[in-house]
Structures are given as structure tokens and as C-alpha cells.
Design brief:
This protein is of the alpha+beta class. The protein contains 3 helices and 5 strands, in the order H-H-E-E-E-E-E-H.
Length: about 110
Amino acid sequence: MNENWPEIVETLIPYFETNSVEGDYQREIENCLKFLGWKKTNGTMVSQYTLPIGNSNSIRPDIVLWRKNEHDTQSPVLPIEIKRPSNIQVSTQFRASPFERALLVP
């Protein structure tokens, strides 16, 4: 798997040097995730999937990675929100989702 990282870096480096379109960047990240075994064709990678959070909230990350659970059904394991490398985050842009707040609580 370590041999995949140079390929991933080479694929994504151009996006750090220009003001890239977020959709193009996301497609390249999805292609890079394929190097690591995550694929749309086998259901382990899903784009724009809405994940419920509690009874009344949800999040819709750009990508959700899935794997089989102990009942042999697919379960979400990692939501991924894509931001362009050139997107400079300022305090007014950051508002934690319920999922992110849950991750911040020890």
C-alpha cells in the first residue's frame, strides 16, 4: 500500500498550485481512494450520501467510505468533506456540524 502514496501525491499536487474547481478536485480524490481499495462499484465509496445524526439531524458529506460490519452489511465508516486547497478557512466559514461536534467531545 505504501507504493500508492507517491501516485496519490503526484495526482493531487497540481490542485495545490492552482485555484482549482472543487468538483474536479473531488473527482481526483475519489480516483486516489481507488488506489487504496475504496470503490463505487463495490459499494465501499459513495458520493453525496446523507447520513442521519440522531433523530432530526443529518449531514451530507462529499464522500462516505463504507465497509462490511459484523452482520455482513455495509456500514459507513468515514465521511469526507472536500475543500479546495486554496480555500482559506476563516472563523465565519467554520460552523461545526452535529457530527463534527460529536468528534470534538472527548
